[in-house]
Amino acid sequence: MKKLTFYLMMMVFTLGTFPTTILAAEKAPTTVTNTTKEVPAEVKVMLNRLEQIKAMDKSSMKSSEKKALRKEVRAIKSNLAATGNGVYFSVGAIIIIILLLILLL
Question: Which stretches are transmembrane (predicted)?
């Protein structure tokens, strides 16, 4: 029983320190360049709209206009995430997978 609590504590500490080291690193500017495939036209339009919104001067806007822009940005980002290829794992799913591997092996 003591070994099990020790292993669980070590896993919690290890997983708890892992994200902080990732967040401490400087983030490089994100640019979407795809050299192997051609970027679809709809994606280019959405990315151009995001760049336009980022370049806007929002200090003179009303709060309702800012709110509408935020909703538009969220909608565009969700559409871009839906069109992207790949498998995304949440932190909870990764923890469950690790626990299952430990218990089964």
Answer: 87-104
- DSSP conformation letters of 2-18: HHHHHHHHHHHHHHHHH
Q: Which amino acid, residue 1?
A: M
Q: How many CA atoms lie within 13 A of 75 on its CB side?
A: 8
Residue pair 49/86 in contact by the 8 Å Cβ criterion:
no
Q: Which two tokens stand for residue 7?
A: 């292993």
Per-residue pLDDT tens digits of the chain, which is 105 residues long: 778 888 888 887 777 665 555 555 555 556 655 455 677 788 888 889 999 999 988 889 999 999 999 999 999 888 887 776 556 677 888 888 899 888 887
Question: For the chain, what are the domain ranges?
Answer: 39-104
- For the record, the structure tokens of 48 come out as 């151009």
What is the helix (H) or strand (E) element at residue 78, kind and residue range?
helix 63-83
Distances (CA, A) of 52 to 44, 56, 96: 12, 6, 41
